[in-house]
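Sequence in, structure out. Go.
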Amino acid sequence: MATPTENAAASAATTTFRGDLDRDASAFVTDVDLLQTAVDRGSVTQARSYELAGQADYDQFRALESGNGTTAATLDELATDVGADQSFGGLHAVERDLWSPGGTTVEAASDISGLVAQAPVAEYLLAKEVLSPEAIGTTGVDELGWVVDMSIPGREELYSHLDDVDTTATVAAADEAFVAIKPLGHLVAPAVTAGVGASFARLLTAVHRIGPPGQVVDGDVSAATRLALSQQVDATAAGLAQLAARLTPFGTSGPPSS
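Output:
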């Protein structure tokens, strides 16, 4: 039987994470608008900067948005997600336009229109997400799994080859989820929670050592560094999954399919 203090902490976790989502979705809309402005001005340098910022924003809520295939495709579809004779859209279409050899903002001007229209839709749908503490923890685990599968191997930014942007942002998103549930975790499973906190501290340090996001090209990250980072991500995800499982008495509903 949960105590009043535990129930209050569970409610606070949901509220905290809800506020984090609102902030992240708002930042995404803002940076996409700034990206469009840079494209309209014909500034490749500024457009690249805002494209990376928008990508980092999207990484903050990717695990929740991916449940809606249509929206996710409009926002963040990869060239590898479609056939050779098919077009794709979203951030990565703009990335292609800006980073391909001889890339300019001319091509980006047409590709950004769908992204600009869909960003507020994503914000609206995310505003409906109300996650239990267990679901928040599981979302963090999913985010870390994506890092191992996609960004560390360099499978996300196929044109700019700046996947450290995604790694940094997504690890931060997972840590954000942990911070939301940490007060409840300290009440329910203090030893596990302390272990996860220490693991995140090591992981964040390892990510920071790679270098400033947006300035480290994938090819400059050694195989040994990738392996060590993947192992640390896996270890952190395992601990976070254990903590999330301990929070099931406070609700097990996952993120709804938008």
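Check: The chain has one domain: 4-250. The CA atoms of residues 100 and 162 lie 13 Å apart.
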